[in-house]
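tool_call: predict_structure(chain=1)
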Amino acid sequence: MVMAGVLALALLVGGGFLAWSLLRGATPAAAKGIPSNALAVFEVNLNPSAGDKLAVKELAAKFPFLKDEANDAGDDYKKAFWSMLAKMGKNAPDYESEVKPWLGDSAALAALPGKNSGSRPVPSSYVLSVQVTNKDSAKAFADKHIKDRKIVFVDDLMVIASDENSDISESSLKDNITSVESYKADMGKLGDGFLATAWVSSDFIKQVDSQGINAAGILESRFAAGLKVQDGTIALRTITWQKDEFKDRGENVKDLAGSMPADWLGSLAFSPPPDLVNKVWENLDSLPASSRRQLENFGISSADDLRALLGTQFSFAVTGDSKQLQVGIKVHTKDPEKHKSILEKITRSGTLQDARTTVDGDTVTTTFGANSDSFSNPSDRLSANGEHEKLTKGIDNPQSSAWVNVPQVLEVMEKNSSNGLPTQLKENLEPISGIGMVAGQIDDHYFDSWVRVGTK
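tool_result:
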């Protein structure tokens, strides 16, 4: 068994929720063992603060699939993490005798470019950096369990490469990822206090992008992300940097998002920056002639037409079940008549039926299969829903906001299932009160977003 491979896999996918929940990455200690040419970095800390441990334990206790493991772990989170790894492989080394003597408080995993990738830094190898408390014990463990890997010890770090030919040495690691300006800038914007952190470079995104979107010039970006447990919620923050400047920001959609019906399945509101609409149109204009003709049939033949359709603020909500889907769309636009005309042409070619449209000043409301008043003037709005407000905080002037009414979704899933939902699935979804997302622009290049999963 190759324990390095198992550990790397676990740090990538984390075994699900437990891996991310048990870890904290406030200080980039293990990241000091990551080479500066890393394409992506995932960092965790195996020794959270007492407050973080308590918050994670209380949240885990609400979910049946986590409760037993959280109770068994007690305050030894390293043991809990290793127990999770042991379940992913066979004949895992004993934690107490072989792992506990050397395992430190931090670990980081990085994807590296291949040697022969030339100008295309394709991810082809990884480096795992682990803090150790006892170098001799760590060496003994590595000699016994980690085969066909190159291992270097630097200060209190054990650095493991995915193959013996990888270029890692004490000298090569001196110019590490923590000294790279883009990494430092992005992580600085993200802040600290997270259970786990990740950083993904623009080169990595380009290579993963098999559709060539970035190559087409829509976006060239990188991001940093951090996860924490806060106020009984799982909160994921993402800081995204984009090469293209967006000087004209979208509008604040807080009021529009709050006007959506609280008893529907979910909703989304966003305000597209004018520069982004122009970028999108540039790429739509490069589509094949047949696709451009289809857009023209809908009445979209310029960036102004696209801007009229999306408006300055665009929102929609969904409810219903498998038998009858109900959709409501509300848009603030500077050209309501053009918006109405385009939307009518689009809906005539789709599957949504019973469209009703009303125009009130610069606001166009369209419903499909739903009572117009239940959408445009709901008796129960999200702005009065405490859970929605709790899960969509974090951005003062959000340019996008989304909400998923998980209890309502669960109820619909239960009704649509002939035999009801599987017991285990239902028990692990029932503790979730909702999912909220907000995002906003920080400056010309940076965007901030939060996704929160609430619990009852």
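agent: The two ends are 41 Å apart (CA to CA). Proceeding to next step.
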